[in-house]
Amino acid sequence: MKNGYLNSVYVNLIEHRDYLPVRDETGQIVLHRGEMRLQKSSREGLHVVYLIDADRLSVQDIAHMLEKSRRALEEFEDNRPVLLFYTFVFDDMPGQDVLRAISSGCFGWLEGRKFITCFTVNLAGKRVERYFKVNVGTDRIDRFLKAALAEDTYRYEIMPDINEIIQKKEKEFRLEYAAKTPALTYILIFINIAVWLAMNLYSRMEFVDINSLLHRYGAKDNYLITASEYWRLLTPVFLHANLPHLLFNSYALYALGPLVEKLYGHYKFFIIYFLAGFTGNIASFIFSPSWSVGASGAIFGMFGAMLYYGIEKPKAFKRYFGYAVIANLVINLAFGFTVPQIDNFAHLGGLAGGFMASAVVRVKDDGKKSMYRYAALIITVVIIVLGLHYGFNRG
Predict the structure, then answer these.
(1) pLDDT digits (tens, 9 = 90+) for 199-231
(2) Which of 16, 55, 227, 350 sits CB 3.0–4.6 Å from 297 for a disulfide?
């Protein structure tokens, strides 16, 4: 019974809290029946978990174990926080002398940021108690201790292959690139710059107003779109109103495009970019009466692609991109809503279009969950058709 409980907590912490087994000098996992150790290094510091069959220990053994760890923490030269979590598992309620030894062995050194927190687990009573000197976070370890107690039968009466579990987790965190170089991103940036240079050169040579040229050669104009110039739902992604507009969008594409292209591959990136630009212009066509130009809808589609990546590869997204992508998206949306003359409907439409396009093409073609891909395709087509219908018939 106790081995099954210890094994379950051990495996759950590896699978769900990203802990790794402690290994010896030869690389072998240190795994004893009476004591198992796990550790995790993160921005919060070094966390070490001890899972101990405490019925085999005397009061003196427990006191000596905790005192030895306390001395080691005081001599530890690393400046980062270190948190040791000792979990003593008993078949039944331990004696008061044992509990006093556990309680007095807890340690909190705020200045040095070194802590020992202890838990006791009573299997018969299905209780978990926490003992600490300083109230610091537990990394939700107590939740896993309680969750394992709630199981009618423990999942891991026999310890599974830990190396196989770790390899599976590493695959979930691994970044797999579908393209080595973001060639298409650079081509798009070059096209945008070339189009801007050509139009400005023509404007100067022929003494034609640049706004007039932008309007003539592809700006989104609702009246002209309803007059059958449907290509104006796509051509704005290649046009820019002025040099700051071009530089801002080019930099944004340079910053985000290569990552999306590498993760999805050239072909999928092409679909995501242009579908996002298309849906961005549809949203602008529906909700904004002003004519507009710019690749910002397609660029916001890159944010949509990264958000979908977080759905398909949540652990890799959270580890490498999550905070930065969401923070940048919020900043850019807020900037758009506070600065006049920015087509926020194109931004939001591009964001949604990039997300939907990514759901259609998916990050990885593994042949699984194809029904989700077809569902995403149907939803995307329906939304585009309804949007166009509304735009052309709103009077």
Answers:
(1) 999 999 988 899 999 999 999 999 999 999 999
(2) 350
**Using one digit for the tens of pLDDT, what is the confidence trace for 140-198?**
999 999 998 887 677 777 888 888 888 888 787 888 899 999 999 999 999 999 999 99
Are 25 and 120 found together in one domain? yes
Residues 246 and 169 in one domain: no
Say which of 47, 69, 292, 347 is annotated catalytic: 347
Is 178 among the domain residues?
no
Task: Spell out the residues 6+ positions from residue 392 whose beta carbon is closer than 8 angstroms to its own.
Answer: 226
Give the sign of the dihedral formed by CA 285, CA 287, CA 292, CA 293: negative
347 noted as active-site residue? yes
- Return the DSSP state at 394: -
Catalytic residue from among 284, 292, 296, 358: 296
Whole-angstrom distance, CA of residue 208 vs CA of residue 269:
36
Percent residues over pLDDT 70 in the chain: 98
- Residues whose CB is less than 8 angstroms from the CB of residue 277 and which lie 6 or more positions away in sequence, other chains included: 234, 236, 237, 295, 297, 298, 301, 350, 353
Spell out where the chain has E strands. 20-21, 35-42, 45-53, 82-90, 107-109, 114-122, 127-131
296 is a catalytic site residue: yes
pLDDT tens-place string over residues 98-117: 999 999 999 998 888 999 99
Beta-carbon count within 10 A of 208 CB: 13
Q: Is residue 273 over pLDDT 70?
A: yes
What domain range includes position 132? 2-173
- For residues 240 and 249, give the distance between their C-alpha atoms in angstroms, rounded to a whole number: 9
What pLDDT is recorded for position 176?
A: 86
